[in-house]
Write a structure and sequence with these properties.
The radius of gyration is 17 Å and the shape is globular. By secondary structure, the chain is α/β, with parallel strands linked by helices. Helices cover 52% and strands 14% of the residues. Helix 7 packs across helix 9 and helix 8 packs across helix 9. It has a 5-stranded parallel β-sheet with strand order 2-1-3-6-7, sandwiched between helices. A two-stranded antiparallel sheet has the order 4-5.
Length: 212
């Protein structure tokens, strides 16, 4: 059973998203209209996928995404917004969301996005991918490296992967579920804009991180 939590201030929009996703009997959908209710729902019954608006009564959800990733590392986070991909979308991915979709997205794309993030992968449109590339180039030009924005756990997992430890070994060493380690790996590769462990190892060596 796939559990989905929709967090948006507008009941009609929540109902529309739920209707688009509710045709599958293996999917259950819950709702939250405020930041307070979102936090309560995450404690009561954490979903497999969180679909969340950028702004909720009570706070900005982008501010809490890093916290949610630490507390619920296996939960897919999909930001849904009426704002543009080149602004809110870039901010959402940098904050740690697995994907971003517009409120004008067709139901078929929404279903595809939910399926993608539920598997621990990232859902990024061509437009957003281009915007992220530009953002990373600007960051590189300012002297900031992608790994410098990693959380301590992401940094640790990155180094262990580069040193040749398997997912099972890393999970045992850090006291994590192997699936959680897999999610960390996918997120690390996405943030570094690379595709393989070999590229990750090369990055670590080139930046001198293998000496840590």
């Amino acid at each position: 059973m796939l559990r989905i939590l929709i967090a948006d201030a507008h009941p009609l929009l929540r109902a529309g998203v739920a209707q688009a996703l509710g045709h599958d009997p293996t999917v259950t959908v819950e709702h939250a209209g405020t930041m307070g209710r979102l936090r309560e729902a995450l404690v009561e019954n954490p979903p497999n996928v969180l679909i969340v608006e950028v702004e909720l009564p009570g706070g900005t959800t982008l501010d809490i995404i890093p916290e949610l990733r630490q507390i619920h590392p296996e939960m897919g986070i999909l930001v849904l917004s009426g704002q543009s991909e080149r602004t809110a979308g870039v901010k959402a991915i940098i904050a740690g969301a697995h994907g971003f979709i517009s409120k004008t997205t067709a139901p078929e794309q929404l279903i595809e996005a939910v399926d993608t993030v539920s598997r621990g992968a990232h859902y990024v449109s061509t437009t957003l991918d281009s915007a992220l590339t530009e953002e990373l180039r600007r960051g590189a030009g300012a002297g900031k490296l992608p790994h410098e924005a990693f959380s301590p756990r992401e940094h640790t997992v990155m180094l262990k992967i580069a040193r040749g430890f398997t997912t099972a070994e890393i999970a045992a060493q850090l006291g994590l579920n192997p699936r959680t380690v897999g999610a960390y790996r996918a997120r690390i590769l996405q943030k570094l804009r690379i595709q393989s462990t070999a590229e990750l190892t090369r990055y670590v060596v080139q930046k001198g991180l293998d000496k840590e």
